[in-house]
Amino acid sequence: MPDGSLPSPRPLRDADALAAAGLVPPAALPALREVAARYAVSVTPAMAALIDPADPADPIAAQYVPHPAELETTPQELADPIADHPHTPVKGVVHRYPDRALLKPLLACPVYCRFCFRREQVGPAGGVLSEAELDAALDWFEAHPAVREAILTGGDPLMLSPRRLRHILARLSALPHLDIIRLHTRVPVADPGRVTEAMAEALESEKAVFLCLHANHAREFTGEARAALRRLSRAGVALLGQAVLLRGVNDTAESLEALLRTMLAHRVKPYYLHQLDRAPGTARFEVPIAEGRALLASLRGRVTGLAWPTYALDLPQGQGKAPIGPDFAERAEGGWQVRGPLGGGHFQADATPG
Ligand code: SF4
């Protein structure tokens, strides 16, 4: 910790534990106890160690430490902002797109992000599918040959034991129609010690396995996180990155560039930059779309194209994820006016039919 004291060996799971660790002022306790009674709290030792308690704008604290503003819900905020519920054919499965479906084996996470779009569902109670429920969910995948990709999410699937993960991957790997197994997780940065050799080995499969790492700030990539990602990469897992555009965390060209470059330096290919989903009590994090587009546009040409994520908004009625990133081409009379990322532009006339 910046003051030299040792980080807590256990996650900090309530307002009083955060105060005892010096991460919130005692005066804030009454309001924060109320927040913690409503939305789950957990700050892992790895993340607590990164927080500078002397910095009221610390970008790591902003993501994990509860704030009294969470008690205010705006009229635009929804309990289920991306409409998982209407697309749930059996418990633990969300089927929104024809060729892929989510499998949510549990609803626990290593940390509870203050901007989480599933904050009304996730928590330490776990929502773990029973053996019978998990089997029914896996049977659903077996019975749907049009589904080519299983996306394990939650909660965080890397909170499962290697034994249980191995069982799920074995069942999915045996489905001839399935090409891809994808896992969405925060664990390699938030609790890297969970990524043991046994866990990496549990993720080995004949299928293409993609791990989509959720991280929002360059500082989250510690030495332990690097080792965890290396272990996963050695097991043949392809690494993708997703971040949420967050006010006070990654909303400057410098912080966003640092995040995307740091992902790449850890073998993590930036995949999505999400516009904030309007979950209850999260308004303080929202960056207007126009600002997000300008931020990304400012990186184009200056930062390797490998770092470029798809900036996307999940539509609130569950109609899918729409790309909302900056445009470089505009339709003009007889062709396209294309803006140059390094300056200038070019008119590309329509091809004349040969
Ligand atoms: S890790 Fe993901 S699901 Fe869990 S609290 Fe954070 S955003 Fe929500």
TrEMBL record:
RNA-binding is among the record's keywords: no
Keywords: 4Fe-4S, Iron, Iron-sulfur, Isomerase, Metal-binding, Pyridoxal phosphate, S-adenosyl-L-methionine
Top-level taxon of origin: Bacteria
Domain Radical SAM core: 95-307
PROSITE patterns per record: RADICAL_SAM
UniProt xrefs under Gene3D superfamilies: Aldolase class I
Family: Belongs to the radical SAM superfamily. KamA family.
The name this protein goes by in its record: Lysine 2,3-aminomutase
Source organism phylogeny: Bacteria, Pseudomonadati, Pseudomonadota, Alphaproteobacteria, Acetobacterales
